[in-house]
Amino acid sequence: MFKRIFRRTRVLTLALPIIVISLAGCRSTLEPVAPLPTATATATPPLASPPDVTATAPATPAPPPTTAPTTEPTASPTPAPPSPAPDFEPVIGLELVAEGFTAPLVLVPPGDGSGRLFVADQTGLIWVLAPGGERLAQPFLDLRDRMVALQTRYDERGLLGLAFHPDYAQNGRFFVYYSAPLRRDGPPGWNHTSHVAEFRVAPDDPTRALPDSERVILQIDQPQSNHNGGQIIFGPDAYLYIAVGDGGGAHDLGVGHPDIGNGQDLSNLLGAILRIDVDPTGVQPYGIPADNPFVGREGRDEIWAYGLRNPFRMAFDTGGARQLLAGDVGQNLWEEVNVVVPGGNYGWRIREGTHCFDPRNPTNPPASCPDVGLNGDPLIDPVIEYGNANVAGGIGISVIGGYVYRGAALPQFYGRYVFGDWSRAFARGDGILLVATPGEAPGTLWPFEEVRIATSATGRLDRYLLSFGQDANGELYVLTTDAPGPFGDTGRVFRIVPAAGVSGN
């Protein structure tokens, strides 16, 4: 059994001052990070700092306490939960599905019953995987001539999101989020403009999109190159959710960042998760759902939740209460995962995780800070938090949001949240897979532990973790690369499978 990691709220931990480098919406230290401590054999209740303990997960993960949107779900029903395993061992295998990508960031099914999977590469290409996993020779769509030129050593821009319309099988519509050059009327000196755009598939060829069918429905100017968010997903309510970072730089300061920070500013779309209707009546490019939380009050109507730094990957649970979970990359000390609720304020830049934050002294958290934002909304704590590589005993550099497992291949993981971290070091790929068990009591942090990979000689990923994917059956995929930036062809897609019966990764 591996280490179970616990945190409690508002614990101030001594941090080491560092030089900040922007990374996947994050910072990095170039020094390798020590391995996670080895577990001991004695279970211990949650403490202020992470003990070296072994603990047994609850037999059946309890549903997370926070409520989800009240609209009726339209997603396909998920299989009934299997009988719970008496003991939970976080051990998996990884089965190679496809390779030869550069930086695969999104894997999604089109929802048309074809059994295919679509992979969006940061470089601007969307690829089709046949039901057997074979990658088709020609890309589904090539957006490279519409995007900014990417820096191969490291870049957070590019093709960051892909989502198929819930009625894709009938209407052939899908949506992308990509980094375009700064629009003509954009603020002088800003870096680029994020585009959310609609495309259509060729009516006579399901393996090819129509490049000329693009309809840009939303543009968001970005002052810096990093913290772009970029995940787009359709919710169970059939609305499109869009994750947007705080505009980049560091500490939510500088050009393009107001005095209160973009995370707390409701007058723009940065540092927020948006919710829009892509099937509006009339000629407008999108509509505003009537129950969006800032309709009729101060704030942009598109905003669903705010107070976020860089919500890099997010996903709805396809079972249970259909909750929305989002990983939010931290600044200097803490990484977090949030259950996102309408109107929720997740604290950035008043807090980093559950801890107070001072943007002008980021490595020394103040002893106290407000419990509400400037708009009066209470600050919501994350459900998962861990120290990053800049904290003694920290885990990694940038949290990568994942999925609640709803498949059938690994019944012991059913209802648990699988997520990870980009790497424990910048200079070499050392990504981490993690699994959390939803907490039984509201307001408590979820316990989590590292997942061991039985098909790896080291038991670890040994690559940079870029993202996760989920197929129509609820099975999960891991997207990796050997390079810290969008360069080369070492990008791979793995399926998470039972530990037995698969060799090598």
Topology as a string of helices (H) and strands (E): EEEEEEEHEEEEEEEEEEEEEEEEEEEEE
What does the main sheet amount to? 5 strands, antiparallel
| Backbone shape | globular
**How many distinct helices?**
1
User: What class would the helix/strand composition place it in?
Assistant: mainly beta
Strand content: 25-35%
Mean pLDDT: 86
Low-confidence stretches: 1-85
- Helix residue percentage: under 10%
Characterization of the model:
The protein is an all-beta fold and 505 residues long. Mean pLDDT is 86; it is low at 1-85. It has one helix at 168-171, and strands spanning 4-5, 91-101, 104-108, 117-121, 125-129, 141-142, 159-164, 173-181, 192-202, 205-222, 232-234, 240-244, 272-276, 303-306, 313-316, 324-328, 334-340, 351-352, 355-356, 384-387, 399-404, 417-421, 432-436, 448-450, 452-453, 464-470, 476-481, 491-497.
Features:
about 500 residues; single chain; five-stranded mixed β-sheet; disordered N terminus; mainly beta; globular
Task: Characterize this entry briefly.
By secondary structure, this protein is mostly beta strands. The protein is 1% helix and 31% strand.
Topology (elements, then pairings):
Layout lengths: L3 E2 L85 E11 L2 E5 L8 E5 L3 E5 L11 E2 L16 E6 L3 H4 L1 E9 L10 E11 L2 E18 L9 E3 L5 E5 L27 E5 L26 E4 L6 E4 L7 E5 L5 E7 L10 E2 L2 E2 L27 E4 L11 E6 L12 E5 L10 E5 L11 E3 L1 E2 L10 E7 L5 E6 L9 E7 L8
Parallel strand pairs: 2-25
Antiparallel strand pairs: 1-24, 2-28, 3-4, 4-5, 5-6, 7-8, 8-9, 9-10, 11-12, 12-13, 13-14, 15-16, 16-17, 17-20, 18-19, 21-22, 22-23, 23-24, 26-27, 27-28
